[in-house]
Amino acid sequence: MSRLIDDRRGVSVTVGYVLMLVVAMLLLGTLVTAAGGLIEQQSEAVIDDELTVIGNQLASNLHEADRLAQVAHADANATAGSGAGRVILDVRLPRRVAGSNYLIEVDAETITLNTSNPDVSVEVGYPETVVPVDAGGQFSGGDVRIVYEVTAPTGPVSAGRLEVNL
């Protein structure tokens, strides 16, 4: 019986197994921490790319609405100044990008798109329009309507406004 008390071979196997588990858990924790930062950076890059695409799409639609407003104004002039002319352009934009809501702000020459989680901001320029653009502040992403109404066909087309709203 004294031989079994002095035998330490079973202890070394158990200690080795526990040490192996501890090292494996440390490695796994390190990998998860490193991968979390990488995933966050990739998420920001994806959101940046998506916001740039959305901004370019809206810029293209503003340019298209400007051209249509010029045609509507010329048409109203050609029909003896009846004043009947309206352009409505509905633009379908995604409501969310990579699971985050975003805000759009249209200024005189730029479209700014922002998300808050993660904090990403993108500015997209658009070509100068003949008709001034009025967006009335920030609005959420999603469906957008661009409206131009001919109010004074005998005046210049720039007397009107392209109104961007939800």
Characterise the protein shown here.
The protein has helices at residues 2-6, 9-78, and strands at 86-91, 96-97, 100-106, 110-116, 119-125, 133-134, 138-140, 144-149, 162-165. The chain starts with a helix and ends with a strand. Helices cover 45% and strands 27% of the residues. The radius of gyration is 31 Å and the shape is rod-shaped. The protein has 166 residues and is of the alpha+beta class. It has one domain. Strands 2, 3, 4, 5 and 7 form a five-stranded antiparallel beta sheet that branches. It has a four-stranded mixed beta sheet with strand order 1-8-9-6, with helices on one face.
List descriptors:
166 residues, 5-stranded antiparallel beta sheet, rod-shaped, 4-stranded mixed beta sheet, single chain, alpha+beta
Could you give the topology of this structure?
Blueprint: H1 2-6, H2 9-78, E1 86-91, E2 96-97, E3 100-106, E4 110-116, E5 119-125, E6 133-134, E7 138-140, E8 144-149, E9 162-165
Parallel strand pairs: 6-9
Antiparallel strand pairs: 1-8, 2-3, 3-4, 3-7, 4-5, 8-9
Number of strands: 9
Structural class based on helices, strands and sheet pairing: alpha+beta
Identify low-pLDDT runs.
none
Mean pLDDT: 81
> How many helical stretches?
2
**What distance lies between the first and last C-alpha atoms, to the nearest angstrom?**
87 Å
Total domain count: 1
User: Main sheet?
Assistant: 5 strands, antiparallel
Assembly form of the protein? single chain
**Strand-residue fraction?**
25-35%
SSE order = HHEEEEEEEEE
Indicate the overall shape: rod-shaped
Give the proportion of residues in helices.
40-55%
Integer-rounded radius of gyration: 31 Å
